[in-house]
Every structure is written in structure tokens, then in C-alpha cells.
Specification:
Blueprint (H helix, E strand, L loop, with lengths): L1 E4 L11 H19 L4 E9 L2 E10 L9 E7 L9 H14 L3 E5 L10 H17 L2 E11 L1 H8 L10 E5 L11 H6 L4 E7 L4 H4 L1 H9 L3 E7 L11 H21 L2 H6 L3 E5 L10 E5 L4 E9 L5 E10 L1 E4 L10 E9 L4 E9 L1
Parallel strand pairs: 1-2, 4-5, 4-6, 6-7, 7-8, 8-9
Antiparallel strand pairs: 2-3, 3-5, 10-11, 11-14, 12-13, 12-15, 15-16
Length: 356
């Protein structure tokens, strides 16, 4: 289905109420018939800034119900004009969206194929706003994903708007260390679920480990999968199942965050102290936790300073002093990063340590 909608954006100008009412009326009339039928694929366009027909693709799953809020996924396509645009990217993600009951929104990068130009990011914002008018969207459960250049833009566009997105799924992001994911974006990731999906043949030392470490250190709730034998591609084996696993984790963490009351969060100041530092590897690490929770499932990871994971341990952390098995710090003398994820507090703490 193809639609052309008359939406005109005048950046920096004040749009008169009467004009906006007419626009919204036209949108409502056009889309009322679309909402009557679930499982719709829509390839449309509307005039935006300097582009008289800015393109987009949507997919509405068969589970869509106009009477209840629905989850929405922003899909950002890669940079390769010979293969990728909004339509082909929507085609790639349709089965994943259908299986997970997601309204899929794919903006087109235009002639140059890049989805992060100024006109494209402004268009994406307008398209998401429009989708909330056209459909019943759960604004607390809107997510962003993308591959390659789209993965980069998942970071840069998505983390610039932490109030819009409940979580992020960057896939094979075309980034260099943390050059694109700067300190401001890292700070915005605090408390947000981020599932980083990457291939171990796709420059992980610059595109995977550094950003994972930086986001973890900034308080993001990070999960990741580094796929063995996979390069820079979205066409990896069991793609839809892997994407579903990642999405389920993001959604579950986001939903858990939404259920935490302000009273619970502010009742006790959450604090974590790791000592001694330096550590004698024969004695191990001690972690002192101040929390509302008497005990909680937790995950401790040790990374080298290049972001490579060396040790991982799942354990129950209790309120107060916790002596961690010395196996965790049985490493050569040197400097390391220790990351502690507290599942019930939905926080990650990291500290640089020395091992003697």
C-alpha cells in the first residue's frame, strides 16, 4: 500500500492552529481505513522541508488493536544505496516485527542513503510523531534498532532522545571506538537497556568493545552478543530468532524500569564500594552494597582496558559486605575494569582496579 500525505514542516516558524487542524484532519481521514485492518505494509511519502516526497515504510502487525496501546520499533537502514532504503529494510524486518507484535517504522535516507543527515533526523522525529497520531502507540514502549550506519544512528539519534526510547538494539554499528558515541550520549544511556549485537569478524576492537565498556561505565544496562564467524552483515544465521531474543531482553528490562516506583528508588541512596584497590589476587575482591533490597541476582564482569571481557560471574549480592570468589580476580598483575550489574536495582557500577 502506498500513501502520499500532505505534511509540511517549517523549522523555526510558528505553524498556525488552523493549518495544523486541517493537516491532522486529512491524516485522520486517510488513516482511518488503514487502522480498520491489521497486518498492513505501507510504503508512503509526504512533502518535508526540501524534499517534495520524503519516503517511509511502515508495517502494522496482525496483532494490532486500535483499542490498546501498541509497542513501536524505529528501524534505521544501512548506508548502501544499491541495496538499502526504507522499503528493503522494512522487508528485512517484517517477520521479526510480526512475530513480536511491533509496529515497525522505517524512514528513508534519501538520495545519499544516510539516515542521519539533518533533514533525515528531523523527518524521523516527524514520522514518529505522525505514527502516534495514526495509531494507538504505547509511548513508554518505543524502541530503536538499526544495522551498520543505522546502528550508528541508533546510538546518535536514539541516545539524543532518551525520553522517547525505552531501549536500543544497535547491530554491527559502523562506529570507531566512542568517537560517535560521545560523553553526552553515554551519559544519556544511564538506566537504559542497550543490547549490542555484533560479529567477531567486524572489527570488534573498535566497533564493539569500547562502546560496550563506555555505556556500562555510564550506567546503561548493557547486554551483548558477539557472534562467532560473523562479519559486517545483517544476513547472519537465525537472524529473526537472535533479534527476538535481544528485543525480549530490552523490552523486559524497560518494563521492569517502568514498574519501579519513585518511592522505592528514593527510599535509600544506592551505593556500591569495591575494595581493596589494589587487590591481592589471593584474597579476592570485596563489594559493599547499600540498597533497598536485602539480596538480588547480580552479574560481575572483568574487562581489560581495551574492553575485552575476561571473567564473568553470576551471583547473589546481599545488602552489606560481599566477599567475591578470588577466582574472579585470578588474573595477571595489571589494570582492569570491574562491572557490577544489580538486577533489581537496574543499575550498573564500574570501577578501575589494580591487581598485584
Amino acid at each position: 500500500m502506498s500513501l502520499s500525505l500532505p505534511i509540511f514542516m517549517m523549522e523555526g516558524d510558528v505553524v498556525k492552529r488552523t493549518i495544523m487542524k486541517k493537516i491532522l484532519l486529512i491524516i485522520t481521514v486517510v488513516f482511518c481505513s488503514v487502522q480498520a485492518f491489521a497486518q498492513q505494509r505501507i510504503d508512503g511519502n509526504f512533502a518535508f522541508q526540501t524534499d517534495p516526497a520524503k519516503k517511509y515504510s511502515l508495517y502494522i502487525p496482525s496483532s494490532y488493536n486500535a483499542g490498546t496501546p501498541n509497542k513501536m520499533m524505529l528501524g534505521l537502514h544501512p548506508f548502501n544505496t544499491s541495496r538499502w532504503n526504507a522499503e528493503s529494510w522494512c522487508d528485512t524486518l517484517i517477520n521479526f516485527a510480526e512475530a513480536n507484535g511491533l509496529i515497525l517504522v522505517c524512514p528513508d535516507g534519501g538520495v545519499d542513503g544516510k539516515v542521519d543527515d539533518a533533514i533525515d533526523t528531523a523527518f524521523t522525529t516527524t514520522l514518529l510523531d505522525s505514527a502516534r497520531i495514526w495509531y494507538n502507540i504505547d509511548t513508554d514502549k518505543t524502541y530503536a534498532m538499526g544495522f551498520s550506519w543505522g546502528g550508528l544512528t541508533t546510538y546518535t539519534y536514539g541516545l539524543n532522545r532518551p525520553s522517547v526510547f525505552g531501549g536500543y538494539l544497535p547491530i554491527g554499528a559502523a562506529i570507531t571506538n566512542t568517537n560517535e558515541v560521545n560523553a553526552s550520549l553515554q551519559s544519556n544511556s544511564s538506566g537504559k537497556p542497550v543490547y549490542i549485537l555484533h560479529g567477531d569478524s567486524d572489527a570488534p576492537n573498535t566497533r564493539f568493545y569500547p562502546v560496550r565498556t563506555a555505556l556500562t561505565n555510564s550506567g546503561a544496562i548493557v547486554n551483548s552478543l558477539l557472534q562467532s564467524g560473523v562479519g559486517h552483515t545483517i544476513d547472519f544465521p537465525n537472524r529473526d530468532a537472535i533479534l527476538t531474543t535481544a528485543y525480549d531482553w530490552i523490552d523486559s528490562v524497560n518494563c521492569a524500569n517502568l514498574s519501579v516506583s519513585t518511592k522505592e528508588v528514593t527510599a535509600v541512596k544506592l551505593e556500591v564500594t569495591m575494595f581493596p584497590n589494589p587487590i591481592n589476587k589471593k584474597e579476592g575482591l570485596t563489594i559493599d552494597v547499600t540498597s533497598n533490597h536485602k539480596e538480588q541476582n547480580s552479574e560481575v564482569r572483568v574487562f581489560d582496558l581495551q574492553g575485552k571481557e575476561l571473567k564473568k560471574m553470576n551471583l547473589i549480592i546481599k545488602r552489606g559486605v560481599n566477599n567475591i570468589d578470588k577466582e574472579l580476580t585470578d588474573l595477571p598483575a595489571g589494570s582492569y575494569m570491574v562491572s557490577l550489574k544489580l538486577n533489581m536495582d537496574k543499575r550498573v557500577f564500574s570501577e578501575k582496579i589494580m591487581i598485584d
